[in-house]
Amino acid sequence: MKKIIEGLLINYQIVGHGKTDMLILHGWQASLEEWKPTADYFKDKYRVFLVDLPGFGGSSRPNTNWGIFEYADFVMKLIKIFQIKTPVLLGHSFGGRIGIILASQEKIVISKLVLVDAAGMELKSFKTKFLGVASTLFKWLPKSIKSKLGSSDYKNVGDMKHIFVKIINQPLRLLAKEINISTLIIWGERDQELSLSEAKLLHKNIQKSKLRIVWGTGHWPHRDEFEDFVNILFEEGI
Asked: Which of 63, 85, 89, 218 is the most interior residue, by most CB within 10 Å?
């Protein structure tokens, strides 16, 4: 389904008819498609709202170079437009950044926060720091050097480059400390994009949080070990 919101064409799906709402926010360069198995798993318990965030999947790119707070404001508008009430909010990676902001601001009531390999703790490697400071020089570097610098997200960023650089340079560590709701942190043991150290830091900063590891998986535990992933959600009362 598609709807014009704030001048942008937004692709979304609603799965299930449960009495409780769940909102799932995908990661960078992803779309709602990869979360359909999770939505199907919970369709009897929840009304699951899936959305392609602006610039991804079937949704239009923002008209200006948004930062993460513009994305959070956009999701707040979605919640109001679709009357999503006290949802379980699940955010993966980039979507986790948005979840941290929304949960910390308390402008909406979230029943539980689930952060899956969530970005935002800013434990930056030399490569990431280099790209944040010298991203404007990146296009002038030889291809042999480009291939060795930056995450796969940056190297395949396309016309979202300026948005990506803006987002990764907006720290959220202090906001995480403001979260006062029950939070489940799920992390792939072998995540090469966001290390397990970032999961532990997130757990430390969010007072009411619990950390669960999906062993043997990387940055996408919901894809790599789906059964283990949903079993953790079930065990933790999601």
From this structure: 89
